[in-house]
Amino acid sequence: MKLDNPELKEMLAAEYALGTLHGRARQRFQRLLQTRADLRERVAAWEDHLNPLGERFARVAPPREAWTAIRQEIGWRRKTVEPWWSRVAVWRALTLASSAMAMALFIYMGAMRDPAAPPDFIAVLTDANARPTVLVTATGAGEVRIEALGGTRVANDRSLELWLLPGGERPPVSLGLVPLERSLTVSLPENLRPAWTEGVALAVSLEPAGGSPTGQPTGPVLYQGRLLLRG
Amino acid sequence: LQNYPPIIELQHLLSRTARQDQDAFEKLYRLTSHHLHGLALHMLRDADLARDVVQDAYVSIWRNAGEYDPGKSAPMTWMVSIARYRALDLLRKAQPMVRVEDAELLDYLDQAQDDRPAQAAGIDDCSAIQTCIGKLPSAQRQSIMLAYFRGLTHSELASHLRQPLGTVKSWVRQGLLQLKDCLGA
Questions:
Q1: pLDDT value at position A97?
Q2: Alpha carbon distances (Å) from B42 to A48, A178, B37, B95, B148
């Protein structure tokens, strides 16, 4: 390109801003713009001249997804409320009540337990009134038994789901649905064994029938408690 | 006429956006995105591509707001440039043969947008470019309007206007030269 010719230079800048410069000529011109301040200045002048015409385009609101996509692309953190499982204060308030309850039950169960298979851990989950609702016992081998205590009921189109809350930033891990009849024994996944320690929090949330569709708690937390070491 | 939001407000929002102020950017988007989206729809005639233009344009505005110089151009001129170049990129990439045109959308846009010069359309607008475009001979005016509003290339203009390529190239150039004189650029 003979870009010493001021008229040619002017015309290229004008046609670039107008949009009629296209194909390889446009690509080459774009490359030149990166190094030539004189060209950039002429292009900017033409943008200034022509783009007030843009005011005559019809106004049409973009679809909602556009804004969501923009936010994602520029890496904004979603303005979300703090997830319930990270609110430690809730747990502190309940720990005393549920620990006392667990201890009482522990002693009671101690009297009737099968000496051949003693559970190594026990947790009694309680409702907002500190009433025991779900009993969780576990052997050292990682067999976890979940049992609803008398009177724990839920609507037909709902299920109760038990969660292990590993703490910190880590999200809850589902341990399964709370059976309303009899008890359910599940095997603790290998990767959860390190988190399965004394004091770890358990919670039961109200979910659609069959459990959370997302793999994370979606409904309100009804019961909570902590795992206690037995013996 | 679709008036832009006040320059002073947009300048303020852009300078806050340059400091990564999310609230300012969100407000800027609310005030201006329907303008840029309308532009993209009109040029591309495709809802998905137009949405892409809006997304790319605002990501670019967020990242480059610090480069906006209020002393050099009006905020909307700067933002329209970003969106128009992006629309032109996508327009050139899209295969015109397979581009599906939304007839309803086209009708809407054609009603909403008027290619006649401001005076002829009875629009009270005295921006320099409107006045100068009004003074162009009709063939030059039509070529430049089609290139600006529809993003047509020289060869697309030639087939649209049923004229030899050389003729429309010359109309565009003569028109631009005359605009330059008129605008005192």
A1: 58
A2: 20, 57, 8, 17, 11
Task: Please report, for residues A77, B13, B56, B62, B64, the alpha-carbon distance to residue B23 in angstroms, rounded to integers and kept in the order given.
Answer: 13, 9, 19, 12, 17
pLDDT tens, B129-153?
Answer: 888 998 999 999 999 999 999 899 8
ipTM (interface predicted TM): 0.82
For range A51-67, the mean pLDDT: 88
CB proximity list for A143: less than 8 A, separation 6 or greater? A185, A186, A187, A188
Cβ contacts of B109 on chain A, cutoff 8 Å: 58
Burial of B173 (0-12, 13-18, 19+ CB in 10 A): middle
**Tokens encoding B147:** 């290139």
The tens digit of pLDDT for each residue in A118-130 reads: 457 889 898 888 8
Query: Closest partner residue to B55 among A53, A58, A73, by Cβ?
Result: A73
Give the integer Cα–Cα distance in Å for B140 and B169.
10
In chain A, the N- to C-terminal Cα span, in Å, equals 88
Is the pLDDT at A87 greater than 60? The verdict is no
Q: List the 55-94 stretch of B: residues with Cβ below 8 A of A.
A: 55, 58-59, 62-63, 72-74, 76-78, 80-81, 84, 88, 92
Residues of chain B with Cβ-Cβ distance to A12 below 8 Å are none
**The tokens of B60 are what?**
């670019």
CB contact (8 A) between residue A74 and residue B59:
yes
> Closest to A70 (Cβ–Cβ): which among B55, B144, B152?
B55
Per-residue model confidence as pLDDT tens digits over B18-50 = 999 999 999 999 999 999 999 999 899 889 999
Asked whether the predicted pLDDT for residue A157 surpasses 70, the reply is yes
**Taking the complete model, does pTM exceed 0.80, yes or no?**
no
Eight-class DSSP state of A112: H
What number of C-beta contacts closer than 8 Å exist between A and B?
146
In angstroms, the CA B38 to CA B41 distance is 5
- Residue B113 banded pLDDT, cuts 50, 70, 90: very low
